[in-house]
Each structure stands twice: as C-alpha cells, then as structure tokens.
C-alpha cells in the first residue's frame, strides 16, 4: 500500500497600514516566479519582479506611501512587510535548510548575498552606488529595504559587492542574488524530516 503525503502550502498574506504607508502582499514560497508588483517606483517594481522570478516565489504586492514626502517610508516598510511574509510562510522552520548564499554575476558586476533564518535580525551591507537615483529609486534606500527585511523576517543578511560597475547592474545583481540565497535557505531538506535546524531545538 502506498502512503499518500500531503504537501503543506507555505504561503502568507500581510497587511501593513501606518500613517505613512498602506501595503498588502501575498507570498507563496513554492511558486513559479509569478509577480504582480505596484509600488509607484518603477525601478523598485523591476527589482521586486526580478526577485520573485529568480527565487521562484509568487508575489503579489501593492504598496502606497507618502511619496510626496520621500521614498524612505515606502521602501523600508515594503522590506518589513516582505520579511514578515517570509517569517509567516516558514512557520516553525522545521525541515528547512535555514541558510543560503549565492554569488550573482550581473554583466561586469558580482554580488555575494548570504542569509540565515536563525531568529536574529542583523544586516551587513557592503555596497555603494555612484548615483543618487537608479531610475527613480533613491539609491541609498536599497540598504533600507534590506534593513526592513531583516527586521520583519528576524534573519541575518549579508550583502557584499565584489566587483564594481554600473549602478543598475549592481543593484539588480544584489536583488537576484538575494532571491537565490533565500530560495536555498527556504528549501525543505528531505533528510531533516521535522527537525528544527538548530542545536537549541527552536528558532
């Protein structure tokens, strides 16, 4: 007799509304890379679509904010909401790889991104941009997006730009590398069974 196993869907829906932003998103970890993104910042939309595509995450995201003031609140809060979605979709984290790392070459640039869902929030970001804006995205807010993500997901993220080049390529390589590192960390390891990936027995 064959044993039938049921795969539990790893999904999350997040609603974050403050006096500055209104964000709604739906995330499926085991997706196909489909995305519907609307933040009001074209280049940011492009980065998040690339993120979903390369991580094979399905992502629906609608974000509105006080762009007449600055982009900071919208970009940072989007990072927080996306991080919260990953934390919710991973649940107790039983059986996952927990950590992942990927070096992504984007034309002349090379970005290394590592992530660990170990329950501690810390960002190390070693990348600089030469322009104030990439498209219409304030370049100094790329770091703030990742800072928001680690806050929401309660994880460690390390970003390091290994080879310099065009700002567009640098940023896109970072987002794609982040996606691939996250996909590794979220992967369910068959041999792990229902074990939590920590000697503490809990994350």
The arrangement of helices and strands along the chain is EEEHEHEEEEEHEH
Oligomeric state as shown:
single chain
Number of helices: 4
Strand content: 25-35%
Number of strands: 10
Mean pLDDT: 95
Biggest β-sheet description: 4 strands, mixed
Explain the overall architecture.
The chain is of the alpha+beta class and 203 residues long. 33% of the residues lie in helices and 30% in strands. The protein is built from 4 helices and 10 strands, in the order βββαβαβββββαβα. It has helices spanning 42-55, 72-90, 141-153, 167-186; strands at 11-17, 21-28, 35-38, 58-65, 99-106, 109-116, 122-126, 133-134, 137-138, 156-163. The strands form 3 sheets. It has a 4-stranded mixed β-sheet with strand order 1-2-4-3, covered by helices on one side. Strands 5-6-10-7 form a 4-stranded mixed β-sheet. Strands 8-9 form a two-stranded antiparallel sheet. The N and C termini lie far apart (36 Å).
Sum up the structure in keywords:
single chain; 203 residues; alpha+beta; four-stranded mixed β-sheet; 4 helices
Secondary structure elements and pairings:
Layout: E1 11-17, E2 21-28, E3 35-38, H1 42-55, E4 58-65, H2 72-90, E5 99-106, E6 109-116, E7 122-126, E8 133-134, E9 137-138, H3 141-153, E10 156-163, H4 167-186
Helix pairs in contact: 1-4, 2-3
Give a short synopsis of this structure.
It is built from 4 helices and 10 strands. It is α+β, with helices and mostly antiparallel strands and 203 residues long.
């Amino acid at each position: 007799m064959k044993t039938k196993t049921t795969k539990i869907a790893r999904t999350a829906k997040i609603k974050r509304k403050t006096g500055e932003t209104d964000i709604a998103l739906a995330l499926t970890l085991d997706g196909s890379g489909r995305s519907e993104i609307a933040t009001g910042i074209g280049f940011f939309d492009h980065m998040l679509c690339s993120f979903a595509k390369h991580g094979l995450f399905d992502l629906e995201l609608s974000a509105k904010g006080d762009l007449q003031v600055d982009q900071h609140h919208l970009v940072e809060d989007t990072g927080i909401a996306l991080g919260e979605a990953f934390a919710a979709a991973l649940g107790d984290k039983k059986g996952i790889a927990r950590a992942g790392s990927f070096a992504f070459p984007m034309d002349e640039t090379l970005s290394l991104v590592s992530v660990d869902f170990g329950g501690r929030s810390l960002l190390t970001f070693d990348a600089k941009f030469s322009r104030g804006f990439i498209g219409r995205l304030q370049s100094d807010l790329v770091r703030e997006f990742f800072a928001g993500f680690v806050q929401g997901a309660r994880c460690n993220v390390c970003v390091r730009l290994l080879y310099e080049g065009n700002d567009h390529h640098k940023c896109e390589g970072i987002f794609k590398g982040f996606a691939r590192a996250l996909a590794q960390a979220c992967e369910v390891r068959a041999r792990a069974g229902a074990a939590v990936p920590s000697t503490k027995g809990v994350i």
